[in-house]
Design brief:
Strand order of the largest sheet: 7-8-4-10-9
Structural class: alpha+beta
CATH topology of the largest domain: Prim-pol fold
Shape: globular
CATH class of the largest domain: Alpha Beta
Strand content: 15-25%
Largest sheet: 5 strands, antiparallel
Number of strands: 13
Amino acid sequence: MEEGARQARQDTQTAIYPKRLSRKHLQASTMGKSCYALEALATGNFAGIGLMLPAPYVLIDKDAREAAPIYDPHTRKIISPLALRLLEQVPSYAELSPNNGLHILTEGTSLRGNFKTEQLEMYTNWFSTVTTRHIPGTPLDVTNQQAAIEALENEFHLQVPEPVHQNTGGLCGAPGSRGYRRKRQVIRCYKNSCPGTWADTVTIRTAQIGYC
């Protein structure tokens, strides 16, 4: 009975993060009920609420960089062309991230799992900070955008084919094998077997290669 009550209490707890502090590991001492977390967030002393976003929720994250800002605090408008396209392409709940980047929370299933590139990030089953800094003009609801998720993955997270390994050592052996010796030995090998061939004049100052 006590264990069940403890688990129910943990399920309603949420972490809150002070501004300018790095995220710490979840501990019971840093967690509180969601209602208290929202009250604390409203004071302006915190960057957001830490939430675990389980599947099928998907977080689309576009980080702001000094050379490529996303949001202009003076005009209070999104100025990044990619961010503007994402807002149109994924009509779901959107907010500003703690560093004035873009968060879009949607619902769906990713094709190839979480990814992070220089241009875009996408996560599911992920612990993230929700700021509640809703972007005006975007939905207040989390909507299912499966087609958009797949389109973004195919654009920013292409499937890389598995490399095909070939044995290029041939009869002479590959680096690290028993048939791998210095070129001096290669020359000796060819001289012994084929006197008068190119091996008589080739230099020995190049890198190691295989030998016959």
